[in-house]
Amino acid sequence: MYLFDENFAPIDVEALKDELKEDQLKDTWTDEIDEGELEYELAEMYLTAADATAHSYYSSEKLARLASERALAFSPALAGKNIFRRVRTFVCKFLKEGSTLGEIVDAVLEALSSILPGGIIIEKVVKKLVRFIINRGLTRFCGWE
What we know:
The structure is a single chain. The chain has helices spanning 13-25, 35-57, 61-68, 76-94, 101-115, 123-136, 138-142. The model has no long low-confidence stretch (mean pLDDT 85). It is built from seven helices and no strands. By secondary structure, the chain is mainly α. The chain has one domain. α2 crosses α4 (76-94) and α2 runs antiparallel to α6 (123-136).
């Protein structure tokens, strides 16, 4: 899987996994993450990715600008909930209780890469999403209880 940041710089997925493992070992994951805030950030990440890729898909600057101005009619609350739901559906389909951090990261990145335009992600949001899943536990996150 080939992913980019919002500046089209390639993301080293293995380095991202290592950072998450280090953070988890430091035991800094005890803070509660608000689901609504996470949904909003997922929606913002979608808009960022759409804006970044607009120039790649449209032949003129004017069309690209019009495509990126759709944010005016964009509902982050609704979009974020839908992105979150799609990520949860994907992740829960391929993981099981006891899945490793690396497997969870892989599933999250695979889900996001199929949802977000151009494979563009914001690492901070990905880390927050993974922490949210780990803090909740897969059983509770997926509703397997």
